[in-house]
Amino acid sequence: KKKAIPEVPCPGLSDIDNALISTYLRRTSATGGGGKLLYDIAKERYKKVFSKLGAREKEQVVSIQGHGHQWKNDHKRLKIFSTSCEKNIPNRTPNQTPPCTSCSLILSLKSFKEVLRKPPPLPGKEIYTNKLYRNETLGQIYARHIGLKEIIESPDAKNTPCVRYTLGVLSGKFNHEVLSGLIEAIMQKQNRVERGVGMQNFAYAPAWDEFSHLFEAFDAVKLDNHAFHKPSANKPFN
After folding, report:
1. Selection from 238, 218, 216 nearest residue 228 by Cα
2. H/E/C letters for each residue in the chain?
3. Cα–Cα distance measured from residue 229 to residue 19, given in angstroms and rounded to the nearest whole number
4. What's the pLDDT at 184?
5. Which of 5, 42, 91, 166 counts the highest number of beta carbons within 10 A?
6. CB within 8 A of 26, min separation 6: which ones?
7. Facing residues of 8 across strands?
8. Does residue 151 contact residue 164 with C-beta atoms inside 8 Å?
9. How far is 166 from 76, CA to CA, in rounded Å?
10. Residues with Cβ < 8 Å from 209, sequence gap 6 or more?
11. 174 to each of 137, 167, 178, 182, 183, how far by Cα in Å?
């Protein structure tokens, strides 16, 4: 009597099966794909384009599209599974279990090949992503997990001076070492206060430290009015 081949969970599709899968999953927040276009569903069901539908009708069209998905996206593990995944498959190759037949068939779908070939948006263009394809709930949960709740949930946060300056620094647009050094010192001080730690051995950023020494030296010098005077619109520094 032959021994039954033990079964293992289907591993789904990953970069092992197509090197573009992780790129696709990092580009989109869609939970799946392979369904009909929203435009086509709206025309078939309501004889209107999707943008002209009411809120309830749009919700129904999106639901219909979701029910027709042929694959599911697992962003956490960067894997894709067929909606008809066989779940368990015989463990014929212990070192590397291939996807089940249903998942493997996804690789040959025209719609799947098209989404894999679609390039990621250019830097800075992600903000124009259609709201239908943004998972705001997961974004807010993640923001809370990493301590950015106030920034994400504050109205119009991206237009506040603090956030705009931070984004400018991170993108390389701003390189104000002195100002950044001052901000760093303020944050360090607040951190020590919150932890109940004293200010002994407080270290300033080099740029701010240098600026402070120069300012102290400048303040200590008594300047002659002929050597230095306040500039005016018509008369610059000597």
Report:
1. 238
2. CCCCCCEEECCCECCCCCCCHHHHHHHCCCCEECCCCHHHHHHHHHCCCHHHCCHHHHHHHHHHHHHCCCEEEECCCCEEEECCCCCEEECCCCCCCCCCHHHHHHCCCHHHHHHHHCCCCCCCCHHHCCHHHCCHHHHHHHHHHCCCHHHHHCCCHHHCHHHHHHHHHHHCCCCCHHHHHHHHHHHHHHHHHHHCCCCCCCCCCHHHHHHHHHHHHHHHCCCCCCCCCCCCCCCCCC
3. 66
4. 76
5. 42
6. 78, 120
7. 89
8. no
9. 28
10. 181
11. 31, 9, 11, 15, 14
Please return the burial class of 185, using the count of CB atoms within 10 Å of its CB with bins 0-12, 13-18 and 19+.
middle
Nearest Cα to Cα of residue 112 among 9, 11, 28: 28
| pLDDT tens per residue, range 110-152 | 999 999 999 887 777 777 677 777 777 777 776 676 666 666 6
Q: Which residue has the tokens 């989404």?
A: 115
Pull the structure tokens for residue 226: 């002929």
Rg of the chain (C-alpha set): 29
Confidence (pTM):
0.63
Does the pLDDT at position 237 exceed 50?
A: no
Mean of pLDDT values over 74-88: 95
Q: Which residue has the tokens 């005016």?
A: 232
Alpha-carbon gap, residue 176 to 198, rounded angstroms: 28
* Dist CA 206 CA 171 (whole Å): 21
Residue that is written with structure tokens 């009909």 in the block:
36
